[in-house]
Amino acid sequence: MPLDKSIKKVLVIGSGPIVIGQAAEFDYSGSQACRAIKDEGIDVVLVNSNPATIMTDRGMAAKTYIEPLTAEYVEKIIAKERPDSVIAGMGGQTGLNLTCELYDKGVFDKYGVRVIGTSIASIKEGEDRDSFKRLMERTRQPIAPSEIVTNIEDGVAFAEQIGYPVIVRPAYTLGGTGGGIAEDQEQLVTILSQGLHLSRIGQVLLEKSIKGWKEIEFEVMRDGAGNCITVCSMENVDPVGVHTGDSIVVAPALTLADKEYQMLRKAAIDIINSIEIKGGCNVQFALDPHSFDYCVIEINPRVSRSSALASKATGYPIAKIAAKIALGYNLDEIMNAVTGKTFACFEPAIDYVVTKIPKWPFDKFFGAKRNLGTKMMATGEIMAIGNTFESSLLKGIRSLEIKQFTLEREASKKRSMVELKRRVIVPDDERLFDLAELIRRNYHLEMLSEITGMDLFFLHKIKTIIDAEEELKQYKLESITPEIMRRYKKMGFADEGIAELIGSTAREVYKKRIEMGITPVYKMVDTCAGEFEAVSPYYYSTYDTITESVPSDRKKIIVIGSGPIRIGQGIEFDYCSVHCVLSLEKNDIETIIINNNPETVSTDFDTSDKLYFEPLTEEDVYNIITLEKPDGVVLQFGGQTAIKLANFLAEMNVPVLGTQPKYIDEAEDREKFDELLEELNIKRPKGKAVWSVKEGIEEANALEYPLLVRPSYVLGGQGMEITRNEVDLVRYLTDAFNKDSDNPVLIDRYLGGRELEVDAICDGTDVLIPGIMEHLERAGVHSGDSVSIYPPQHVPDHIIEKIKDVTYRIALKLKVIGMINIQFIEFRDELYIIEVNPRSSRTVPYITKVTNVPVIDIATRVMMGESLKSMGYSTGIAPKTQTVAIKVPVFSTEKLPRVEVTLGPEMRSTGEVLGVGHTFIEAMYKGFTAAGTTIPKAGSTILATIRDLDKENFLPLAKRCHKLGCKFAATAGTAKFLEEHGIPVQQVKKISDGVPNVLDVIRSGMIDMIIDIPTKSNDIYSDGFKIRRVSTECSVSLMTSLDTFSAMVDVMESGLSPDKVDVISLDDIK
Amino acid sequence: MEAQLILENGARFSGTLFGAQKDIAGEIVFTTGMTGYQETLTDPSYAGQIVTMTFPLIGNYGINLEDMEARRTNLKAFVVREKCDYPSNFRNEMDLDDFLMEQGVVGLEGVDTRAVTKIIREYGTMRACIVRGDPSYEEISHMLNGFDNSHVIMDTTAGHIYTLNENGKTHIAFIDLGAKDGILRDLVKRGCRVTVFPANVSAEVIGAAKPDLVFLSNGPGNPLDAPGTVDTVKALIGKYPIRGICMGHQIIGLALGCTTSKLKFGHHGANHPVKDLTTGNVYITSQNHNYIVSDFPDGVEETFVNVNDGTCEGIRHKTLSLESVQFHPEAAPGPLDTGWLFDRFLREVM
């Protein structure tokens, strides 16, 4: 069927903030869907609470709402905009759950909204554990013996029946949250109680463990006429037992004979036919490595992380095609954009190997339990393309930015055989390297395959790399012949990797390689293995002789992307890179993106004129520069990943656009920067670098407590801390110098003032500040984790003036051309500077959307030589809006066992939401709602544990809550304090006082909010740490800063409810 | 040992020999299937050809003696980017190298197969040779000119008449033009007694067997080179229900008065979309052919068409019981999406 002409206005629901299990892939799929719908002349109404996304840009939809993703708000939007249709599968699990909820509540019926694409009935068949089981029976598909349980007793009984180990999977949760593998009854009870709590419908599936079977996925598509295709097969290198989001995955499947492959492919197609999918669907199988036995693990009737990976791996845009199918088209009516000749109704043929490796946040979360299981922990991922498995894997490893260029890892080398064996059996993020180390020490591959469940095929391939590494160690730079060099380059070794193994430097190896005339060529990703001529400009490198990438003679710019999503470097930078490209394209400049993150919009082959899917190392980037000879390279938008290439590119005489590397260095180097501030007479908190505990104590006394302490060189997860006395300081310094005595520790005076932040654009003459942001929490909380308010609500004019003046002077002094981000503290009516980043920052998408100043476009044009004046801007702060927009951070700590959840100087959030309101309170209210924070009301119980230092500050807030009818529970100290001040409180036992203690009370579900102001963080043995962990794991809202809580009390007093606030579209922000 | 792949247009690629170590000439084609190299190796339709695999990693799951499409390989040479030295699969019985050696087939690895594919795409299917050493221009021309694939059907067809599934109910006269076992398996699976005849069988011999239905198999080369099969089919039309696959489809087409022509580089792979003109449904099919049928006389209608290039993928007669398809419903290798066609083929005689 062609386009359904009755569709005029479609509601698209986004996936909300970035959390573990739901990252940038839904911005990619959502943006694709919006574009695909818009291309048909149909209006899109978009709702997503996440301001950092490209999909929420002006122009992506006819109307965009950055509003909480709750049924109430979406209903209000539907009532206001009256879309005739809604598309369900574009916003991940969040969007899908919300669509189901709206459907169940009759909202779609009430407003005459039709669900297009896969129907709600189909979604429920795939998602609901019980109907999934029935579906499998109906389609005669095998599944592991399983049962749905709704209470612990039934669970234990069933486990006895099928035998341990047992897999626990809660229904309707993200990335397997709350699931796990239980080896015995004790573990089962723990995991099951958590799972039952987290499931939206209190259902958990228990299933016999098929740990060790191959995990194979298929991405399948079906149109309204019933035509089915499989886009891609994927094989998890880590077998069943490790969540696919935490597995190394290859595409296509590499170890299946045609019979096995076709058996699973047919099963996937039979399933999607049976539930009448209209769009994309992911089907996961477990395949017995010793027979044709298989079972279906699960299906996801929507676009997903895997579908984003499959799209990038094949060049087949799943989300776009799914959207077209929803609009009525059949697969054979949709063009394949890559070839421009063939149709979407075919199956991509791949002629390379794709490897995906997860990026885990354990470098930020030292002390986290790193064991991988059925709960996803990775924040992001990288993808690498090569024409051998070896090159694909080696490219992947260096894309992770973990300073690994070979399979040889220092930490693994230090481990004993016994230790290594133990570690590979219970996988964690270092398994690949531990495994490699075992192989290097000649551990039998057959046994290794047996204990890890990894296929021998992969182990032999890894051994090939290790043998090559050992062979290379026999060489010196001088003894490497061109044949040898070519062989190792073909296998995928980086110059840096070769250098490490032969005891040379990357630069020397590079020089030698160029002398030998050995340079990479670039092959095309074309969906058809070369069968048809392709127009897609999407490339990867190999060391063959014939290249397919021919540089044009147009003016061209390379934009360096930001790599995998990690804490501190998220989707915001992809937003910036994409907007830079859009801006350059408007000026008729050829754009080239280099990036390695398959989840993003920047790596959509439609985004730039040319896409190189390559690692972001000096070598890989420079190879492309050598070929393309661009007129300039843009680093400002790719976060730290791109910025750290600055010095290298300068040395190689590559034109870096915007702020020059020399000045970037000046801002990044603490000493040089101090000198600069001195010269400009700008204040910063006093500080010093110390080399010993003794020196530290002396300095501390001179500076006065409290002090902010942090290592100058971040190693082993030692983070920043605020120390308030000598005892704390000595403990911190002792610990830091024990871990690393070669680098100093930085001690700064801690100023507990108000934090302010600006993003500014400088053209060398003028400095434009689109807006100033005020942080809700006082200094000491990482800027990425604080609630951020625009326009500022509590900042006096003279401070605003001072910010303008200081920003102007610093930007000019640093010869900034393009973006600069500065963070300030206002303390006792003085302005101090705490940080300067000579690049685009994480707040740029937010400030762009709320101020309507096209920040990246202006910055890009400035870098290309235009002046702010010529664009109609001048020095100063852009006029502020009346509408208030508040950014609230969102954390994923419930998915990371043993990770501290307190706000502090180390960033921990993974995403953000925006609250947009006519007043501060309204915006704050929406912000809390969007972030999923419970807003206590009369009758709610608040559990409080407040450190002595803050008890007095807490009192007035407690009194206000009491007046509102909230009840309090507290442990001894805080309880006594509250009672003394006339606030009734239910005292609960400390953990050491037996049961039921404070943790049991939280688990019982009677607590609505916890306010815990800790004395110190990161101590996993303290009661506070345990309270915070349990609250997070039980999804009880937690506040660890009185500043946040104070805003919460304001919101509570306002009595706001969804029916009392408007929904505000981007166009309504005035 | 190092060797060169030399194409008729002059392009040269160096690689390392495996399997049989000899110089050969053949017609070079590429196939885009990502799994099923063993079925490809043993598919008689590739007789006389040098087959290039576009997927770079070949041999990963080894060779087993179950997934054979014929008792032996018929192709001339097998060109891959990388052969797997340590295959892994629960059915793995041999590795690729030893299998090709045993079969006397030349293997060449380490070739930039994507570059080879792009040349074939641009210049079309052509002759090529794999040679050791540094042969002169004359030697190469001599080799290429010496290549003749016109007898290839008789090289691969059954040597004598034999019967499968003696006790089967429905009797199929199966004309073997170089058949894949997969087609026979699908017929036997449905309870047919199948009498297999060589390609040069006469209509009288078929008639004497009193079949319920005549089935023409796939096969290698040009349908015009088939040894009298077109005339045999002409004589059978109207007397028996006739079905055919691939080469069989082309022979039926010729017998009905259609023409056949050679595609630039053929269809070889497991991802070809085919539209059923009756229902409008599209199926993903396995394909392996260089020739197509066109110019349908009155009474003949197209049943399937290729979604990518619009070429004919199936025909039937409007009044007689006669139907054939260009693609491979028996899969092996490839998708199982059109296996139902066998039921349709047999419906009226079961």
Task: Write up this protein.
The complex is a heterodimer of chains A (1070) and B (350). By secondary structure, chain A is an alpha/beta fold. In chain A, the strands form seven sheets. In chain A, strands 27, 28, 29, 30, 31, 32, 33 and 34 form an eight-stranded mixed β-sheet that branches. A seven-stranded antiparallel β-sheet of chain A has the order 14-13-10-11-12-15-16, with helices on both faces. A six-stranded mixed β-sheet of chain A has the order 17-18-21-20-19-22, with helices on both faces. In chain A, strand 27 and strand 28 (767-778) form a beta hairpin. The longest helix of chain A has 17 residues, at 258-274. Chain A is globular, with a radius of gyration of 28 Å. Chain B is of the alpha/beta class and 350 residues long. Helices cover 23% and strands 33% of the residues of chain B. In chain B, the strands form three sheets. A ten-stranded mixed β-sheet of chain B has the order 10-12-11-13-14-19-18-17-15-16, with helices on both faces. In chain B, helix 8 (229-236) packs across helix 9 (247-256). The chains are: A alpha/beta (1070), B alpha/beta (350). At the A-B interface, strand 11, helix 9 and helix 17 of A face helix 3, strand 15 and strand 16 of B.
